[in-house]
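Figure 6 in text form: structure in, sequence out.
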């Protein structure tokens, strides 16, 4: 439909824009075609100052005239048809560029969110694997301890009791608990070599 509107017209080009515009608003396809061919090159050249993508600019110009034909009865009578068309195509190109950029940004955001979700899941899996490995390592180290050392370590690092509380439960002095836990940690470090227990601090 629109291609047929953009074909050359038998109307003489010397007709003023105001006459052509009035005829176009009444549904005159020939007048519309003359306006299109009269200003097509000017609109493309002007738009290329905003975007260097010629195909994109050509599409914008085509869409502008398609919208003009569709809404011809609602259009006013501009003092300068040329100025009106240039202003309209500039707004349209900028608007389309913003829309394209927004779509691209939304796509990037979705992809980033997907990556973040994947990373979050992967991080949780790694954290769980690490926790299990550390637990197994700790159990192996515990085998090197005496019964009393195991009890003291359990009450300190699993039950989270203070040294005085442990001393009360095991019926020995607080100093003895310090020594017991300290020797237990030394034994575990010797057993597992490079394993570090820096995260266990005395409270």
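Output sequence:
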């Amino acid at each position: 439909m629109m291609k047929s509107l953009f074909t050359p017209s038998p109307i003489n080009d010397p007709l003023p824009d105001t006459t052509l515009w009035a005829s176009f608003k009444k549904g005159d396809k020939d007048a519309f075609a003359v306006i299109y061919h009269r200003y097509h090159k000017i609109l493309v050249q002007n738009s290329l100052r905003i975007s260097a993508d010629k195909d994109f600019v050509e599409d914008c110009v085509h869409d502008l005239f398609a919208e003009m034909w569709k809404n011809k009865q609602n259009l006013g009578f501009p003092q300068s048809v040329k100025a009106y068309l240039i202003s309209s195509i500039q707004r349209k190109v900028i608007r389309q560029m913003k829309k394209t950029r927004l779509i691209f940004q939304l796509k990037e955001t979705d992809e980033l969110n997907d990556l973040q979700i994947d990373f979050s899941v992967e991080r949780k899996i790694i954290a769980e694997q690490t926790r299990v490995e550390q637990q197994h390592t700790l159990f192996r180290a515990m085998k090197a301890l005496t019964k009393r050392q195991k009890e003291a370590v359990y009450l300190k690092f699993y039950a989270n009791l203070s040294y005085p509380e442990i001393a009360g439960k095991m019926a020995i002095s607080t100093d003895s608990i310090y020594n017991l836990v300290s020797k237990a940690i030394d034994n575990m470090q010797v057993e597992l070599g490079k394993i570090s227990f820096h995260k266990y601090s005395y409270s």
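Caption detail: The two ends are 84 Å apart (CA to CA).
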